[in-house]
């Protein structure tokens, strides 16, 4: 059972926060086993704790399992900014049964990822890779699948047009191939500038 303090926080938290662990507990582990990432080190482990609690820590709150503070996979203290958020993560831990399933702990996973991967330059580089793999840049060839090609053109062309207007350059399009895209350099730089501005 969670400590009484945690339960009181959950009662006072928004309804969607209080209900979150109930929804998360219904999520099944996908085929192929638990997902990688922040839960990789605990996936499949038997529940090794009895009590889940919350403690004030600096300017935020941390989660405790039998009095021991939870840490991220990189061994950083899992310190959260609000009681409501800490209560949500605590409920995810408390909802675990005999075996810990990280896939039923999405807020814990997001919090760990945010704390462990704070290198903005790394994040920007990872996001920029999606420009090379976006589906709308790889339509089928009309001579092979005319009906599908027509539908793709109807749905995707407006998106490509918006992108080109918004970021000032054309997208490279590969029909029926998966070779590396060569987008307009101006557009790529403008996208990078936009992504970088989001962190301000």
Molecular structure report:
By secondary structure, this protein is α+β, with helices and mostly antiparallel strands. It has two domains: 45-116, ATP12-like, CATH 3.30.2180.10; 120-198, ATP12-like fold, CATH 1.10.3580.10. Helix content is 43%, strand content 8%. The chain is built from eight helices and four strands; from the N terminus they run αααββββααααα. It has helices spanning 4-12, 15-18, 20-24, 83-94, 106-116, 120-128, 146-167, 185-198, and strands spanning 52-57, 60-65, 68-69, 79-80. Strands 1, 2, 3 and 4 form a four-stranded antiparallel beta sheet that branches. 21% of the residues are buried. Mean pLDDT is 80; it is low at 3-38.
What are the main properties of this structure?
alpha+beta, 200 residues, ATP12-like fold, 8 helices, ATP12-like, elongated, four-stranded antiparallel beta sheet, 8% strand
Q: pLDDT under 50 segments (min length 5)?
A: 3-38
In whole angstroms, the N-to-C terminal distance is 41 Å
SS elements, strand count: 4
- What's the tally of helices? 8
How many structural domains does the protein architecture include? 2
Morphology: elongated
CATH architecture of the largest domain: Orthogonal Bundle
Mean pLDDT: 80
**What's the CATH H-level superfamily name of the largest domain?**
ATP12 ATPase
The CATH topology name of the largest domain reads ATP12-like fold
Q: Tell me the structural class.
A: alpha+beta
